[in-house]
Each structure stands twice: as C-alpha cells, then as structure tokens.
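Margin note from the TA: students keep mixing up input and output lines. Inputs are the sequences; the output is the structure of the whole complex. Example:
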Amino acid sequence: MAAVVPEDRLSGLPDAILVSILSLLPLDDAARCTVLASRWRHIFSSTFLVDFNADMRGCRNVLKAVNCILAAHPTAPIRSFYARKRFHSGWLQELARRGVEELDLDLDPRSCTRPPMIRPSLFACTSLTRLAASSCVFPAAAKIAAGAPQLVRLTEIELYDVTISDASLGVLISHCPALERLSMQNMGNSGTVHIRSQSLKFFHSDGMFDELFIEHAPNLERLYGAYMYLEHEVWLQILHAPKLEFLGYLGMNIQAIEIGEDTILTDDQVQVKTLMPSLKTLAIEVSYTKEGYISWITQLLELFPCLESLYIRSDTWSVIQAAAPESWDVLRYIPCVDNHLQKVVFEVYRGHEWQREMVKFLHGRSMFLKAMEFHCKEETNTPGDHFKVPSEQWVMKQKELLCLDSRASKDARFLFFKRQLVHNHHDDACNNEWYKRQYYDDLYEV
Amino acid sequence: MAAPESGDGNNGAARMVTLISSDNTRFEVEAAAASLSQTLQLTILDGGGGGGDGIPLPNVDSATLSKVLEYCIKHAPAAANGGAPNATAVDRAELERFDNEFVNIDQSVLYSLIMAAHNLEIEGLQSLVAKKVADMIKGKSPMEIRRTLGFPDPTPEEQAEMNAHMLEYGWAYE
C-alpha cells in the first residue's frame, strides 16, 4: 500500500538495512513485524522464508508459529527448511508444494512420548536434493505407496539415530535414482542393511550392523563403517561393487567377509577366488591378542591385489596386553604387499613388539613403498597420561629397532608424528582443508 | 584494515585526512579512523583527502558525521591490530560500554546513523545500529512496534490490512 503521507524513517531505509535488522530477530518476531507494512512482508518472504529456520528458541508454540507464518505467506517459495525439536508431519505436503530442496529435521526424541514419525508424504518433496534427519522414525515400507514419486534430484541422505527398517531403507534408496551419499550414524544396531543402488558413491556409517549386504552398487567408491570391527560380529558381503576404492574398518571380529560369489573369509573357512582389484585403500583393526591374527591379515590382503594404502588401527586405550605368539615369517607371495603398497599408516604407534614386527615385514617386502607413517603414543600405565608425547630419544630408539635400512624400497620415507591419528580421519576430517594443511605440522625432526 | 603508516612515506606522525559534510563543515581525522569506512578506505589508500583537498560527503550532515567519527576514533585502535586478538578484557569491556551508550540516542539521530553507516560501509557501526533497532522491536506487539519506531498513525486502509494480518498472527499476542 503506497501511503501518501510521509513514510516513517525506518520504512525509508534500503532493503539491505531492513534485512539486516530483521535477521537479528527470531523468526516469529520478524514475522510479527511484517504486519507493519507490505514492503516488510515482501522482504520477509523473499529472504527469510527462502531458507526457513524453524528453530525459534524462546517461542512458546513453535508449531503454531510456523503454521501462522506459512499461512500468512501462502505463495512464498521455501528452498531449505530446518526444524529443531518440533516438526509437524503435515508440513511436508506444504514444503513439497513450495519446492523445498533441502530438508533438515533435527528432532528431539525426548520432547514426545514416542519418537516423531516422518510421514510417507516425504515422497511428495520431489525437488529435494538433500535430506538430513535425526531422532525420528521412518515410515514402514508397507505405508509407502508403491507409486510414490521418485526423488530424482536427491543426492545426499544423512540419517542420525533414525529408526528405519531394512525394507524401508530399500524403498527409500530405490526412490532416489541420483543418490550419491548415504550416511547412517548412531542408529543403534541396524540389523540387516541391504544396499542396491545404481548411483551410490559413498556409504558412511558407524558400522553397527548384523549384516551389511552390498548387493548391487556399480558406482560405490567408499564403504566406511567406523566401528565395524567391534564385537558385534557383522556379516559383510560385497556382491557387486566393481569401483570400490576405500573399505574399512575390517577386523577379526567381523564374522565373515564375502566378496563376489565365491570368496569368503571366516574363522574356520577361507576360500579366495573373486578378488577386488579396484580397492586402493584399506583400513583394518589388528586384534593382536588373538591367535591367528597374522594369517588373518595376510589372507585379507590377498583379496585386494592392487592395494596402495593400508591404515592400521589397534586398541588404543587399554594398556598393553600380551600379543599372540605369531610370526611374520610369511614366505608366500602377497600381490599387494610385494607390488603395489605405497603407503602404510600406523594410526596409533606405541612401539609394541607386534607392531615392530609388522613394520619390518611390510617395509622389507614392499618394493614400491613411498611412505610409512607412525602416529606415536608412548606406553603408559598412569591413567590420565594418555596424551603424553613420546620423547625424541624414544623415537630415535624406535628407528633403530625398526631396522629401516633393510627396507625393500630405498625411496621410502618414514614419518613419525607427535600424536595419534584422529579418529574421524576417514570420516570427514580428510576432506577438511584446515586438517589437510596442518597434517604434517607435528612431525618429529629426528 | 589499513594501518596508519601504510601508503606514502608519512611515517612518524599519524596521517590526517579531511572530510567535508553536506553542510560544508570540515572534519580533520586520522586516516586510520576514517579508514574504518570501506567507502573511504580506497580513496585514502590512493592518497586522497590529504592537504587542502578534503573528501566531500554529500549524504552526511555535520551532526551525523561528528557522531560517526566519534565511533571511528574509538574503534580505530582495536581495528588496526586486526580485531585486537590480544586486547585485554578491560579494553573490550570499555568498547562495549562505549557502544551501549553510543546508541542510547534520539531516534532521528539513530536513523541518520543507520543511513550513514550504510553509505560509508562501516561494518561494526552497521551491526551496532541494526542490533539497537532489533532490540527495540523484540518481543513487542505490532502496535507497540509502530509506536516505538515512530510510524505515522495507520490510515483506515492500513488499519484494516493490519487487522487482517493480526488475525492470522493471533499467536503473536498470546
């Protein structure tokens, strides 16, 4: 409405200033201001509703506030929607109508008697490119209509503490033909998880499965289960993932590792036929107290003939236990160790004898080794002393004990770091620019 | 942020520049203080504003400019050492106290300041005054906001429109 009387001074301010003022207010306060002038309404819907932040702390009734805002701006498009703690499933239809592209539902299991439920109308949001959901329940597969639309633009799904059945996950994935990244964290034990996706490239999880079955994933590059090696005995089967480059963490607690149709590695059965030549990086946990750990490692390495990088983790917190009496006197040919391995990383190097023997085996055999990293941590029996940095003398001594002169690759470099590798190195840290820049900052200079 | 000694051999004594308000009043200030304005910074780096020249500011009157410069002079030392990572807590508390008092002003002055901070692109001052206005709005009903911000009384037409919206926003007045 154009007023003929001289406008108040505030309304005479440029849009940029009004936006900067409104943006300092919680969404409900800002929305309330819009009754003052039609120009404010326009600014509000064109700036604040585009990226709708429904996290209104201090607002007594968030659900009502969001409903009112939506009703007052019936045609405003919403590109992204962020809900924290409170979300009404009915909004999904409304958001779908407004072309929502990013949906972040950070719900709170404690705010309701039962965890909030996502409705099947999620599939109406056909413009979605990214979905993040936490602390909620995904609809049962049977509730999702067979003819539900495909989410053709959705490339990224992040689930955190979400209850979702294997069947529902299957329906979700099958409705996302462009899905590239799937992350499942803190899901409790997810039971069986079955992956069939033509487009998936990255699958990240904490690894708490009974069974992880990669049935058909022709474009999968990274398969990461941070704690897949813990004592819950995952059955891991990779039937078809011809582009897989990264796999971890594997450990002896894994009940079975199956590759293709005819390779299987279990406690009492070893059959190696189908190999995985695509794999470049493997991350393992070494259960050095278990009998047979060395033959487990060497058999595992045989499955990946072109492996270039090997990350080795071992129990980091408890004090040293006696290693199983095993020997690295392995004479047989292991293709990746002899001909491909370029990088070996001991994520926590404490100078244990089993570690030293493993180092000597690897550098003595790997003709193409370029770098071996030791992320050092000194053995200590004093609780609270876990972050003590080993002395330079200790590192010098280790270098001696490791017989580095007997290495097969004369070009190999041996790098000693003043702290252990961060736990989330493979998760997100390794893509972080700051992390990459400071990675070599804490090298020993000896 | 431009340090005072950057530029053209005026080492030693701090370099001064002259600013001319819309009503032709001349203000002589240290270049470092005036450089808090992104708009002025480039001119000053180019060596402008020195000697008898002066930089004309046709959009800012002398009352507002003196207020703006009061802010700049107070904030220049902290800005010069990169947001003052090593400023003491006392220094920071002193700046905060200054800021609070600084915006405790008549509304007409506040609006002139908003415009000046915007035109001169003085980041800190922009957010300081925006925050002041936001604080004036926070938690108030639309009628209270109208009064606080000095909107003219609504025309019958506007009143009807407002009533319609107030219905929709019923939640806001609980």
